[in-house]
């Protein structure tokens, strides 16, 4: 018998997360676990390398935290702050003086983990009867809903985690 746990979605409901938002929570926790596993032995000095021109592992880590932050903000019917817009503009670029490669990986991974925890807290506080409420997205105020934004946050996270996993594996050789 294996000591390995099943995927998050097969471990049962998460306490305090509304039933309709369980898949969002499961997907975000699975993404966090997959990133941790992929980066456990990742060569940190390759954080910003772009094999064959694809996005770097560093970009994906930044983007994972950034997109979660932005989608959660929109779901709360709030505009992005100047700090969020600056973060978006800086995605894909190492922060100046951001320390040794090992500490950069740890910092970015922790930032993503923090956003997952923030998302779980927000899911906990999201009444199911608000899920179909209109929410504008971006400067153009494109139409979405609370559930649309939360599901997009999860699926977009999963998409970038998949790309991160492949890039990390290629770079690790």
From TrEMBL:
Looking at the record, the residues that make up the DinB-like domain are: 28-164
| Domain of life of the source | Bacteria
The protein's matches in InterPro entries, at most eight in alphabetical order, are given as: DinB-like (IPR024775), DinB/YfiT-like (IPR034660)
UniProt signal peptide? none
List membrane-spanning regions: none
Spell out the protein name for this chain. Answer: DinB family protein
């Amino acid at each position: 018998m294996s000591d390995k746990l099943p995927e998050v979605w097969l471990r049962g409901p998460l306490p305090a997360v509304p039933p309709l938002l369980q898949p969002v929570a499961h997907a975000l926790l699975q993404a966090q676990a997959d990133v941790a596993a992929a980066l456990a032995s990742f060569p940190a000095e390759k954080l910003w390398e772009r094999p064959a021109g694809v996005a770097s592992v560093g970009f994906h880590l930044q983007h994972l935290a950034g997109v979660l932050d932005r989608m959660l903000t929109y779901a709360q019917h709030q505009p992005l702050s100047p700090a969020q817009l600056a973060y978006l503009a800086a995605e894909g670029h190492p922060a100046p003086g951001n320390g040794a490669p090992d500490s950069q990986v740890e910092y970015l991974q922790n930032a993503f983990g923090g956003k997952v925890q923030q998302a779980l807290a927000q899911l906990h506080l999201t009444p199911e009867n608000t899920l179909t409420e209109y929410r504008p997205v971006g400067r153009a105020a494109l139409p979405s809903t609370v559930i649309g934004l939360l599901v997009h946050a999860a699926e977009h996270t999963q998409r970038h985690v998949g790309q991160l996993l492949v890039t990390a594996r290629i770079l690790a050789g």
